[in-house]
Design goal:
Blueprint: E1 15-20, H1 26-35, E2 45-49, H2 54-60, E3 63-66, H3 75-92, E4 96-101, E5 104-106, H4 108-115, E6 125-127, E7 135-141, E8 144-150, E9 159-162, H5 163-168, H6 170-173, H7 177-185, H8 189-200, E10 206-207, E11 231-233, E12 235-237, E13 240-242, H9 259-266
Parallel strand pairs: 1-2, 1-4, 2-3, 6-10
Antiparallel strand pairs: 4-9, 5-11, 6-9, 7-8, 12-13
The structure holds uridine-5'-diphosphate (UDP) and manganese (II) ion (MN).
Uridine-5'-diphosphate (UDP) binds next to helix 3.
Length: 278
């Protein structure tokens, strides 16, 4: 773990959770989040997308930002969305910027408990270390290349930046700078962020195992520990579904992502969760 000097009382409005999505996922992935954790984190959440959906914005009551980024899965398009999230965070004046993908479940209580252990006035980059060693990349400046090593947080598990770090990052992330950095090392947005934080700002990643992406085997998280995790996810590994291991209350066919079951574990007072047996 990182430094824990004192920590800080946090209100919901001190945190910005940026959810990255795409118009094509509004009715599927985003709808699942809107049916589960997002209503429990209304104050924190802003959705970043690439196509208008006035209807959804109205029915959900959640702020949606039109990034005008291309609606594709390219590294450029995803970097464009991350840069938009960053700009919105800087203007927001909030203390913590947390990014998640639209296949993440965020436990707002666990997130708030985690961040309260730190100070947003210190330069912090919190997330799940993507590898158990630094990534080796090739940096190209002009026609010179050199090998660089750095740690980065898996974007698909979510990560958080303190305001102090985000502010100092401006020359490297503002305007077209993030896109430039991504081109310079030819790696995706999450690697690029790690590169900027470690190589240009000399801040170390604070590794946090409470963030989870679908790149890891989610069934290995003990059911008794699920409620302590900050983020979870769902997906496919080697043609097999990769989801958290929860018996119920909903079946795999009713709830393939397991997010409804997880939500009832965390928020049993939700109207559509089965009443608890006394
Ligand atoms: N995404 C996007 N535009 C696209 C496809 C994906 O913004 O055309 C977003 C998606 O909503 C998610 C993130 O990029 O937040 C990662 O996409 P996905 O989970 O499909 O792929 P992964 O990188 O996890 O394999
Ligand atoms: Mn994903």
């Amino acid at each position: 773990g990182g430094k824990r000097r004192g920590g800080q009382k946090l209100r919901a409005a001190d945190i910005m959770i940026a959810v990255r999505t795409s118009r094509k996922f509004h009715q599927s992935r985003l709808a699942l989040l809107l049916a589960t954790w997002i209503p429990r984190a209304r104050v924190q959440t802003i959705v970043f997308t690439d196509g208008e959906d006035k209807e959804l914005e109205k029915t959900s009551g959640i702020t949606m930002v039109q990034t005008h980024c291309p609606p594709v899965h390219s590294s450029q398009a995803l970097t464009c969305k991350l840069a938009s999230e960053y700009r919105t965070f800087l203007h927001s004046g909030r203390r913590w910027f947390c990014h998640v993908d639209d296949d993440n479940y965020v436990n707002p209580r666990a997130l708030s408990d985690l961040l309260a252990r730190y100070r947003s006035s210190e330069e912090l980059y919190l997330g799940r270390a993507s590898l158990d060693h630094p990534i080796e990349a090739t940096e190209r400046i002009g026609n010179k290349t050199r090998s660089v090593n750095f740690w980065f947080a898996t974007g698909g598990a979510g990560f958080c930046l303190s305001r102090a770090l985000a502010v100092r990052m401006l020359p490297w992330v503002g305007g077209a700078a993030l896109a430039g950095a991504s081109e310079r090392i030819r790696l995706p947005d999450d690697c690029t962020l790690g590169y900027i934080v470690q190589r240009w700002l000399h801040v170390a990643l604070t590794p946090c195992p409470l963030f989870h992406s679908h790149l890891e085997n989610l069934a290995l998280i003990p059911a008794s520990r699920l409620s302590a995790q900050v983020t979870l996810s769902y997906g496919v590994i080697d043609n097999r579904t990769n989801v958290v291991n929860l018996r119920g209350p909903f079946s795999i066919s009713e709830d393939p992502s397991r997010f409804h079951s997880l939500h009832c574990l965390l928020f049993p007072d939700t109207s559509w969760c089965p009443r608890q047996v006394h």
